Amino acid sequence: MATHEGTLPGRAEPIVSNLGLHPVLNSPVEGPWEEPYETIYIGMGCFWGSERIMWRLPGVKATAVGYMGGTTPNPTYEEVCTGGTGHAETVRVVFDPTEISAQEVLKAFWENHDPTTLDRQGNDVGTQYRSAIYFTNESQEAAAIGTREAFQKVLDEHGKGTITTEIASAKEAGEFYLAERYHQAYLHHIPNGYCNHGPNGMSCPIGIV
To answer: Is position 81 annotated as part of the catalytic site?
Structure first.
């Protein structure tokens, strides 16, 4: 069951397919991926900057941007922007756990956006810009909860707000729908394009998670 209900009907067919190889990572955007690779889905607001943060992490093998956490099948960007699909702008992150842990992926997640602003990142406002983690196994769930608790302590020490990040299993969040071709690896193709992501000035400790 998806986390947020949508009101738009959507469509039966995907809006994009056959994306080929990732232009930075040179890996298949749509898989298949080698064992023991894992997949986790994260939402940090606008997915352009979020994806670049993720593909730069050593051990990340593939990334793609799309829509997740709603109920409208195969939504378009324009539909998601209305808030009528229930989806969040999401990055699918495929990583090799022998090279990078889920905790390390999530450390980058927490440190590069503001998880305390509900349905907002900077000037981007709406449920589609919500902070979210959609995990695919129990160890990722533990990492999500553990890093959230660790980072909340850091936020408290700095007098910041309460984390509003949605944490749910990918099964609960529903299907991940690939975004349109021009959104994929957007900041690789347009390096000076819009991006409101970057270090928030606080460090998420993962040694205690």
So the answer is: no
